Amino acid sequence: MQQGPQQPREPSAREKQANTEDVQRRLQNFENTRMQSKRNDSMLYAADASGRAALDAMGALRDAPGAAILNRIQDAAANNRAA
Q: Which one of 1, 7, 18, 29 is least enclosed by Cβ atoms within 10 Å?
């Protein structure tokens, strides 16, 4: 007698739970190993961009027209303390 193709059996609740936990564990592992480095890269890029912007702002302040006046005030204050 020839049997027809077997129907796949429905996984039990315990098997479904184990599969769900396995997927969650693998997803967490993926996020920890692959995605965290990308987050770190973007945070480093943002910190670098912020640092460059701060240096540019300080350079602009140093080269601004009023910088000479501020330097004279600072020199006068330094000379005043020494006297």
A: 1
Can you tell me whether residue 13 is helix, strand or coil?
A: helix
Quick one: tokens of 10? 């429905």
How confident is the model over 45-74, as pLDDT tens digits? 899 999 999 999 888 887 888 888 888 888
**Could you tell me the pTM of the whole model?**
0.42
What is the gyration radius of the CA atoms in the chain, in angstroms?
33
CA-to-CA distance for 34 and 77, rounded, in angstroms?
55
Q: List Cα–Cα distances, 4 to 9, 10, 11, 13, 47, in angstroms.
A: 15, 18, 21, 27, 65
